[in-house]
Amino acid sequence: MNISSIENNLINTSFVLLLIALISYWWNLTINSNNTIIFLSQTLTILINLTIASSLILRWAENKYFPLSNLYESLIFLAWSITFLQIFIEKKTKNKFTGPITIPIVLFIIGFATMSLPNELRLASPLVPALKSNWLMMHVTVMILSYGTLITGSLLSFLLLIISNNNTIQIEGNSNSNNQKILFRYQLKNTNEISNNFNRIKLIQLIDNLSYRIIGFGFPLLTIGIISGAVWANDAWGTYWSWDPKETWALITWIIFAIYLHSRINNKLEGKKPAMIASIGFIIIWICYLGVNFLGKGLHSYGWLIT
């Protein structure tokens, strides 16, 4: 069995593990939560992360360059990034919401990379001259890590919108970083409903703060990725910025999340309004990452399928 076959088997194994983890996480969230299921879910995520990492390392060893030169490799690395971030968040926060929303996305990424991409985009090929640079690892790695981080934070914001979209609770006010006061209006009917709504408020605050912290970490990564890309572009093509479709949408992504952070830091907003901005950012990320490659041709054309 050659290295390519082992790599493919590792990716297929990760797909199967993702299916099991998806069932485990959602079982724990909706049906029966206990420590055994939580441990199983987290162990599966670690195995998935190690399996994906092993496939990338084998590809790196076989082809003698960091595996980020085509769309397939970047998708696999994105899947690794999201699972790594998920493991870190679960370790630090002990919350049970990150896994159920990130595992389906990773499952989609792996499924799309292995089942939808044509073979020519999955096969490793010698690097073109522009990619034979140390900037390949620096720029592309940071960009993919920022995508994974911002996707996770945006998913939590989307989850916040779903939870808060209930007639019995309406977020109406704002807060500041000093006293963290939030004004809520309730439509309450009985004592049980009061308890349920206070639990919902606490849950919304938890998800809101976690989403803010994750996006706050991903935004500097995106900034560093764009700056390093501009420096690399000047070295490779003689210009820092050429308004290539990928560059343009990366700038739009940066602006969207800058607006989100501005609304949180300066306007002291929490809850649904910033979450809506982050949810829009989730769509923009995928347009920047995949849509541009499928629908437009430019200097960043490794994943472009239309000829």
Automatic annotation (TrEMBL):
User: What is a single molecular function from GO for this protein?
Assistant: heme binding
State how it assembles. Answer: May interact with Ccs1.
Q: Which GO terms describe its cellular component?
A: chloroplast thylakoid membrane; plasma membrane
Which superkingdom is the protein from?
Eukaryota
Q: Does the keyword Plastid apply?
A: yes
The membrane topology term of the UniProt record is: Multi-pass membrane protein
Q: Does the keyword Thylakoid apply?
A: yes
The name of this protein is Cytochrome c biogenesis protein CcsA
Q: What does this protein do?
A: Required during biogenesis of c-type cytochromes (cytochrome c6 and cytochrome f) at the step of heme attachment.
Instruction: Please report which protein family the annotation says this sequence is part of.
Output: Belongs to the CcmF/CycK/Ccl1/NrfE/CcsA family.
- Give every Cytochrome c assembly protein domain span: 68-300
Location(s), subcellular = Membrane; Plastid, Chloroplast thylakoid membrane
* Pfam families found in the cross-reference section: Cytochrom_C_asm
